[in-house]
Automatic annotation (TrEMBL):
Pfam family of the protein (one): E1-E2_ATPase
Domain Cation-transporting P-type ATPase C-terminal intervals: 763-942
Name under which the protein is recorded: Calcium-transporting ATPase
Catalytic activity annotation: Ca(2+)(in) + ATP + H2O = Ca(2+)(out) + ADP + phosphate + H(+)
Organism for this UniProt entry: Adiantum capillus-veneris
Keywords: ATP-binding, Calcium, Calcium transport, Calmodulin-binding, Ion transport, Magnesium, Membrane, Metal-binding, Nucleotide-binding, Translocase, Transmembrane, Transmembrane helix, Transport
Amino acid sequence: MLFDHDSADSLRNRAEVINRAAASDKEVAQQHEGHPGDALPPGTVPSNHEAKHHTKIEPPVVHHNVVIPPGRSFGLTVEEIARFENDCENLAKYGGVRGVADILKVDPKKGIDGSLEDLVARARDFGENTYPVSKVKPFWKYIYEALQDPTLIILIGCATVSLTVGLTTEDPKAGWYDGGGVGFAIILVLLVSSTSNYRQSMQFRALTAENQKIMINVTRGGKRIKIIIFELVVGDIVHLGIGDQIPGDGLLVKGTTLIIDESSMTGESEPAVKDATHPFLISGCKVIDGTGSQLITAVGMNTEWGKVMATLAVDNEEETPLQVRLNHLAETIGKIGMTVAVSVFIVLVVRLLIEADLKHFSAAEGRKIVNFFAVAVTIIVVAVPEGLPLAVTLTLAYSMHKMMDDRALVRNLSACETMGSATTICSDKTGTLTMNLMTVVSSWVCGKLRISTEMDKEIKKMVEEKLFASICLNTNGHVGISEEGVLEVSGSPTEVACLNWATKLGAVFDDIQKENTIICVDTFNSTKKRMGVVIEEKNGSIWVHWKGASEVLLKQCTRYIDAEGNIHDLKKEKMEELEGIIVTFANSALRTLCFACKELAEHESQVLKVKKPQPEIPDQNLICLAIVGIKDPLRPGVTDAVHKCQVAGIMVMARSSPTDKHTLVKRLLEMGDVVAVTGDGTNDAPALHEASIGLAMGIAGTEVAKESADIIILDDNFASIVKVVRWGRSVYVNIQKFIQFQCTVNMVALGLNFIAAMANGEAPLTAVQLLWVNLIMDTMGALALATEPPNESLMHRNPVGKREPLITNVMWRNLLGQFAYQLILLLVLQFRGKQLLGLHDDGSHTGHAYKEVETVIFNSFVFCQVFNELNARKPEEINIFQGLMTSRVFLYVIALTVAIQVLLVELCGSFTSTVHLPWHRWLLCVAFGAMSMPLGAIIKFIPVPKQPIWSSWQHRGDLVFREGGSVMSLMLRQGSQKVDLQKSRSVKSTKFYTEFSTDGENAPEPESFCLNLKKTFCPRGVTPSASNDVENPNMRNNNQAWR
């Protein structure tokens, strides 16, 4: 892919240099108008003073019969390059690949110069490897979109009517208060929601830019280095391997069985073989097999891929599964709110019409009807919990941002929440559980075990040379010396380990490369588990060298060589000895590699010398040279991370072939598990795509693996995966906190206004007050509760099932308890407030006593929500203040809510229909709200059933076996009933499902199950009954059972 260079700080300085150079060129050109004799050296950027006085005529430069005009750095333009792409005849006119490299001033072995001036010149002449990103949606469009909400449109109409009636029928100085108050509240809601949506969009945009970064290997100045893809320039020599994405259009310089998937650009399903006759490489395509180096001839918008990408816009408006479920919940609550609102409006209007004198119907009565309508619409606004989707967006955005700090890049929004439900993690071992810093620590060389760090003196020179050739020629790695004189070894971790071992034994990499000629190569892939090379030695003999997995390559060996250079048959006893050594190495957690070779007969070598795209290299009757054991130390913290997964009810499995991994994932998914899979290779892509959550490795992972994944682990560390699980669980828990809080506010507001309207024809909470409450519970409530950071307690509970209800029994208990308290409190204040507060007036609705009671109701209601927000932080814990100081956003929201509430009551009474309250009334309102906390603690002592109130009881038994285990019988017992299931074939992993959908006393308890098995692990959450037939009942969470 191509990238916006503005997303990388490392390129900003370079961009400024390029812009200055371009501006300088333009200025020089303007100064030299009318002076064709003046010219500047190609590639130079003179100062203004130099430009004025420069009169030297620069002669044209000739490169491979191509004339470079004066003032131009290179002999080709973008248009000329485009003409020879996919056209071998035109390419031949420029001298083929080598000719183009000469014209572009590129050494195929050393690459471009790589200096700042060189990079600036190439970027200026051929463009940068970027493409135009979609424009940022302006803020006013978010406001416009928010205005499309039908309820807000109705409210704006109500505010307009109220304002018109007030200004025409009352004193204009006070008549605009009601309509103006509603209008101000609408503006506040619009600004807050629009700002929130705009900020989330910016966060997603930044994460998308981070997601698009790809590191590529290039050669510059004779050194192989890694750069970000948008730093690529025309002329770069790029090194390609299996799974890599081609970063720009170009030509194949050198390749070995290079096969490219071009379906994404050409639509052709058949992979394309690239060689000297077909050297054209298209950006955006993937390497399926082989290796090669590419000369970049076009980047950015000058490539076909860039033109395609420029037409695409970033789309971050995907809905996650949780958002879909919450939308359904919001729709249901909204319908209930609509019913209540319509009922309230009808009751209020009917009561008014009954009490009013219809013959003398005044404007005041008309204004009341308008206000009734505004209250009804506002009830709908409050009832519709648009904050639920907002809460998901906020918590996902917050979690994604924090996951980046924990070295995890989220590519798919739904993966955030799905990861919290993961029941199984199928992990790679190398580089994920281990450090991927491999070292040869044990070796069998020339007939016996030897010390790995030095070459035994008894080994003859000829044998030593064969071993060094096998290591240093059959490799994709490289050994060089830095400017500081330090040995630099590059390549895959396994290659680095072997090359380091060889250099410690005395191998000189460059000398071996120069003394031998490589004829053909068979590249490594995980299917073959080996790689081979055919070489011609300086004496003219032809040898084939193989390197690969010991258990694979040893089977192809029939002989071995000793220290004297003598060849011996590999008899049964010796073969068993070598197999035993491999097992010993493997049991010591070492990766084993075998090196083998043989000299080819003349007829065999002649066949290989005939040019073929993919020659068949002989691989039988080989001579075993060496078997090495490579140690990859365990990453710090992995043991603790795996233990946390076990405590959290997650099964961790590691070390399997890509094919087995894919099969295992499919079976686990069929059995209802939520499976997370890690992968780094191209052949891991099917398993990553199949899994519930695909986790690609950011360092070792190929681009194919990353594109198939939902989350990229940037540091390749299993401990980071555990952090992702914790953040995933945090998403779900935070949403549940917000649902509990919002449903409580909804139910109280609806219940209070409905009962009061039915009883006395008045709604105690006005439209402006309800809009403020709506702001508290939607935007500000979502901001406070959805950004709560996770804690370790999340990893001490089992995963949340995919079919678990959003509102649990614990949440129902909490919200119903708070609803009952708040509704009773507010109704008492509504109907007996004057007496309880010691207030007396004429009994009208315009007196000060009435307004003070209404203000106390409004104030008490808001403070109940403030303190209930604290309760919602810990739905199951008594100590609701634990970790409060670490939740800064929560504290800011609470402080802001209280501050605005004080301002609304004391300074904005005309808008909010409130009056000044003395300090003791404020203390009383705060006390009413604070009562929510001890009440919440008492409520939490009320026991609730573990099973959801309105779901059928369901049990699933999980039976996991060691390889070779045989299930003799499964017995499920409930009382006197018994079911015996027979199964006789050998299995590696099996799960039995037994579902019960019963009610009342027929529902069995998990403890009543008895497992009568020959070799089993315990089902998750089930304690087996005492039985001698149950072996290793605690092995269910023992990950040693998996390899």
